[in-house]
Amino acid sequence: TSTLVFEGSGQINEYVGGYSDWLQQRRVAKPAAPGKAGKPATAGTATASKPRRLSYNEQRELKELPESIQRLEAEQAQLTALISDPALFRRNQEQGSEALQRLQALGEELDAAYARWEALDTASNANRA
């Protein structure tokens, strides 16, 4: 689940995710590191220095993140099924409100977990190259 991109100057870079993920990463990277006038910024300039190795705790976190994400997604599916019941809000409006709030918080937790997984996986793959 990664994309290899020909960046120019004979460089090939690997990005986590598919084509749309690469486009999103490319858009985020351009404003953060503008190149010199007349020269576009390339990802190869950032990889010129030796990548930092993952610490033991980061390696453990990377190994545990897929399971953690799976648990969050399972909880999200349960809550989605719960709030899809039209009678829930008639029976117990407080429980319905709590479920909606937890569902929103889960979405944010999942976004953060995916971003962390991507960052650790990218750093891990950079060390292998």
Estimated radius of gyration: 20 Å
Q: Which shape, going by the Cα principal axes?
A: elongated
Protein structure class: mainly alpha
Low-confidence stretches: 32-40
Number of helices: 4
Average pLDDT across residues? Answer: 80
How much helix, percentage-wise, in residues?
55-70%
Please characterize this protein's 3D structure.
This protein has helices at 19-32, 56-83, 88-91, 93-128; strands at residues 2-8, 11-16. With 129 residues, the protein is mainly alpha-helical. The chain has a two-stranded antiparallel sheet with strand order 1-2. A hairpin with a 2-residue loop joins strand 1 and strand 2 (11-16). The longest helix has 36 residues, at 93-128.
How are the secondary structure elements laid out?
Layout: E1 2-8, E2 11-16, H1 19-32, H2 56-83, H3 88-91, H4 93-128
Antiparallel strand pairs: 1-2
Features:
single chain; mainly alpha; two-stranded antiparallel ribbon; 4 helices; 2 strands
Task: Give a quick rundown of the structure.
With 129 residues, the chain is mainly alpha-helical. It has helices at 19-32, 56-83, 88-91, 93-128; strands spanning 2-8, 11-16.
